[in-house]
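Worked example

This section walks through a single chain of length 396. The input is the sequence exactly as stored; nothing has been trimmed or padded.
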Amino acid sequence: ADRFPDEIYDVTAWSLPLAFGVDCLATVGPVEVASAPWSGAPLAGQVIGGRAKVAYLVPGQDAALPALLSWLRKGLRIHVADRDFRMGDNDCPRGTLILRTSENPDTLHDTMKQAAKDPGLRILASNTGLVSDGAQLGGPHVKWVRPPKAALLVDRPASYAAGHTWYLFDQVWRYPITRVAGSNWGRLDLGAYNVLVLPDGDYGGREGPGEKDAGRLRQWISEGGTLILIKRAALWATQKPVALLSAQAKNKAAAAQTGVNPAADKPTADSPAEPASQPADPSPGVFLRASVFREHWLTFGCPDAVDVFYQGNVILTPPDASKGRGLVTLAAPSDVLTSGFCWPETLELVAQTPYLLHESQGAGHVVAFTDDPNFRAMYPATQRLFLNAVLFGPGH
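Given that input, the structure is written out below as tokens.
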């Protein structure tokens, strides 16, 4: 109420099951469970059907994405299904990877056997291109996974939090990404890349990109680029001179912040007028419940609902319906808080707003997150959404 900072140390929600997106059961007493010690070895996968004559089909679960990155580094040609299909008696959900034997080297079978052994993938070898139902292997709902050529903004105006994403590319995903200092952004040859990542940062300051930079980005997107905006980068993109996103910032009224009646308290020289609105009080780090629009390539591999980690106060309205949509949308106020502490007014503001937004612009995409999906590199459930943007944006 007196506008002093809070004294909350670090985040207020710590939960490995929520971070990893797995179910967890709680008990109030001892439970007898039939079990055996785990050796620590990876779960065994298999290639079903032996050597494929037509294609190998890989359901797009989380373990498939590191394998996909490895295959792209090796130069394999891979497609992805935007819709469910059935091959014989096997269900292949949307996001299933397709590696055609005619487009890849003769060593493809050995590569598939190794992938089944290491990440424990279940791979279906198909001797026909005729599906039982759903998307045809050569139809319009199967897209080429165009290898991403990605660049990441680092240094000012980007926050040090860019290191979370850099670490994941460099040490976890083992996929190359070009780091570009903010001072060199204006001289970057955008045509050399098909994915650009603007991490959280102070984009409104003197060191931030200007209208000319926004114009270059707009042209690059229209020609097929995928721009990924994180947190305050997404907020910057909503501003009128930039206008890379049709969504708008959602703030709280100044009267609600101060608890005064603006009509009764007239401003003076010592007490200037309050602005029309103020950003919400920052969330100190909580898990929020969200629903998922699954009929989109950005949500491959996601369930109907997820718990997303949220820290900060970037809150956006849904985008213009003619341009895009929210793909991961936070729940109603009574259901949105899963774990941790958040200011009640902030919860009211953030409820039923998008966590993940997508807009099509020309041949390209703008993907925006209202918080960092790669925060501390410790939330695989939201890292999946980020990886989907990087891997599948260029081919869509």
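What to look for: Residues 255-269 have pLDDT under 50 and may be disordered.
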